[in-house]
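hiii, so i know i said id send this last week but things got crazy w the move. better late than never?? heres the sequnce for the chain we talked about at the cafe, plus the structure i predicted for it. fair warning i was half asleep when i ran it
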Amino acid sequence: MFNKPTLLFLGACLGLLIFSHFFMELVFPKLLRLFHKPSTRKGKQSMNKFSQALKWGVFLAIYPLIGFFLPPPPSLNITQERVFIVLSIILFTWIIIELSNVLRYIFLEKYTFDKEDNLRERRLVTQVAFIRKIFIIAVVVIAFASILMNFDSARRIGTGLLTSAGIMGIIIGFAAQKSIANLLAGFQIAFTQPIRIDDVVVVEGEWGKIEEINLTYVVVQIWDQRRLVLPINYFIEKPFQNWTRTTAAIWGTVFLYVDPTVNVCELKVQLKEILDATPLWDKKVQVLQVTDWTEKTIELRCLMSAKDSPTAFDLRCLVREKLLEFLQKNHPETLPKTRVLLEKETTEIKN
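okay and structure toks below
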């Protein structure tokens, strides 16, 4: 059973915990509106997580003040104990990490993806995301080292390890050379940027968009919602196609195989009518050419431009459908066919 001083102290701690949460619930949103009001869903989520960390931060910051008014029982006085210091380091690390997330969205909300040429925005998102990941790793490592320094046994172990740090470094370097290579590749990608968030790429024969760029791997969202996960150094060591490297605009092609008797000029006029009638075409490129001729068919290449690769794909499908419909309706005889020539043999009957 707890005695009266212990119960009073525990009650004071519980009251302080409720006060810190209630205070932050009322005050934090008002203070927030003075400085920044998030406009995106992710920005609001980051603010909510930051406020949760601050609620516990306020409680832990005010906790030592209780001792001035209500001295804690010796068995519960953890202010000077290692557990209090460790909890403080963990909480402070949590606050810093959530603050970095808030600052990221405050910075990125100045830029919008809702425009055709969002190359600058995608570049900034890629760099900020990678820098934040490196920052979090550094903060966690420093926090972990600070926790260990509060224990005498860990200090002694650390002093002993210093004598063999060179050998251990070589061993770790050989064992983790692939991970280190991926990390260095991540730095290179973040600043030279052969790929960026939301880039359209073709890798391993798959078309998709860059969804995530992490420290050691990249996630590509395939067109059918599958995810292709690749080591980050793949984009340094192997060739791949980036359809939005400098601009989102792209050209699309449609190949037709028709009979040599087709009227090419009429198809050129029809292609122009199809493109003029659709908002998918950006009115920059429109070409129809004979690119090959075999003994059975001729190859026609239709070239058209669009604002981005998804739009170009839809435009190509539309042009195929409309041109096929036009040929089926108006010139079915020009569709590919196989010719068979029959010759009648005559024989003379000799009397």
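btw Strands lie at 200-203, 206-213, 217-222, 227-231, 241-242, 250-258, 286-293, 298-306. thought thatd interest u
miss u guys!!
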